[in-house]
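Forwarding the complex inputs:
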Amino acid sequence: MTPLLEVKDLRMHFPVRKGVFSRVCGAVRAVDGVSFSIEAGKTLSLVGESGSGKTTTGRALLRLIEPTGGQVLFAGQDVTKAGKEDLRVLRKQMQIIFQDPFGSLNPRMTVFNMLSEILQVHRIAPPTEWRGRVEELLRLVGLPQEAADRYPHEFSGGQRQRVGIARALAVEPKLIVADEPVSALDVSIQAQILNLLEELQERLGLAYLFIGHDLSVVRHISDEVAVMYLGKIVEIGPKERVFENPTHPYTRALLSAAPMAGAGPKHQRIVLQGDVPSPIAPPPGCAFHPRCPDARPECRELGPTLQKVSEGHRAACLVHAPEHQ
Amino acid sequence: MNKKTNTEQGYWRLVWRQFRRNRLSVVGLLILGLLTLVAVAAPFLANDVPVYMVKGGKSYWFPNVISYQELEAANFYSTAMRWTPGEGEYALRPPIPFSPRNQMLLDNKRGPSAKHWLGTDDRGRSVAARIVWGSRISLSVGFIAEGISVLVGIFLGALAGYYGGRTDALIMRLIEVVMCFPAFFLILALVALLPPSIFTVMFALGLLGWPGIARLVRGEFLKLRESQFALAAKASGLGDARIIFRHLAPNAMAPVLVSATFGVAGAILTESALSFLGFGVPPPTASWGELLSQSQHLVGSGIWWLVVFPGLAIFATVTAFNLVGEGLRDAMDPRLRQ
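Prediction (whole assembly, two chains):
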């Protein structure tokens, strides 16, 4: 079975310009060769620190920013090569939910205007049915009918996020990129939104690319997890394997930093030294070696590739996932 | 609960609350309101045709704005000023019982008096009537010229800010070119080349006033295009035109409104200057600048009322617009919010 979404070697480099003539003097390698795939109805999570390229990956694969290279295949069709009209049709199937429920809704439009506009542009329903469709969408995300005639500022954060979800659902998509959809919300609201996302997945058969940094949230919602560091995936695999048997030292450090129920007495925190290096000039060899507790001399020279650890579970580490295991 | 409310109303209510604190700006707004009223009601304020009259056993309501066939047949309209009601006849005249075109040659160059409140010019036309009617020219030139500027400015500024890159560079260079021309002389040249009419003046002013607005809008768009709701609109598959004009432009209007208020004042001033030099609205249409230009060769003979009253009218209008503009600017400044 072909996966719903297949990302191959996606790269997103932002040029760094300098001087009077805006000479290009380097590039921020925000996303540098990322590959993964998502099956219909499943959830893949991208986790990593700020600046690791998670959000950029999500936006580049929807072509909200034009990726520098690589392929994004949605149901076999290459998104990166789609023309204007193809892209419009593709965007009917791939949607995004943003992190900031305050910034992602146009403050000058009512919910009804926002949603009906989408129905109009994609010719999903004739004008006479807009009202009913909008109310149906609102019901789907757990908002009252009256919400249709309100402006964004009249809602709480969680309610706005529900409006954002309704907007994504308006086109009846198959895949939703959820870009940290709960990190800006109170913990009690987070659970409600997560439950809503799960419920919608079950009812509508949605696939999610879930971008997050809260590991307990990720563990709750994912089928698969990919850990990103400096624009690259360092470990990817089914949720249980990655969480039970973290292989890359970075993943281990991340997991040790997260408070987990039942971590037991042998839970030991690995504290990373230093900061994330600059993505303009990433360290040679394995980008993680300057902070890695297990680094060896060869890590300075050789860039590791993803190697199989167990079924479906791969990691990019010369030490813990050597090439010929 | 009232539907269809709030952000819109909420935001403007907040602006109004802040605006109200500035007394001078409120005074400015009152002056503008009064001025608009004068311009709209000019036929009722200064006219040789009565507002209500009884003539030949028949009563007429508002012959000043309604043209009655039998009055026209009797050639009443051209002689209305000299008509005195006879036995059983009656005329209720406007407070200034002269039209701006009535020439009372015997009464020329008269100073302010009970009959001619603000005096007469060298052809015996009532200055008061001409100032009242001139307000129509000044306000309409101000608003329409600035309206053209705003439309062009929003359009080009939005394109520059939203697309960036080459489009931006091209539009910014165009802005610099237009800004570098000594605007007044370019307007003079344009008005001299085009057929003289009020529309030429509006057009010329509007076509040179947009760069400031375009730059403001561009700045707002540079900020707005990075906003999440712009990305969200793009992700929803909406077209560029829709994103630019329906989603982003309404969020960029606040600074434009402030700038446009000052712009109207500028346009009124420039129109007066043009009329003063004889390039403005062609005579015999009354305009404030044209009154001033008449005074040019008369002021030496002590006819001060031709300078002072139209000058005051221009001064008051421009000041009022500037006061309102300043008040709006302060009211919309988020740093001053409490």
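Chain A has a mean pLDDT of 88.
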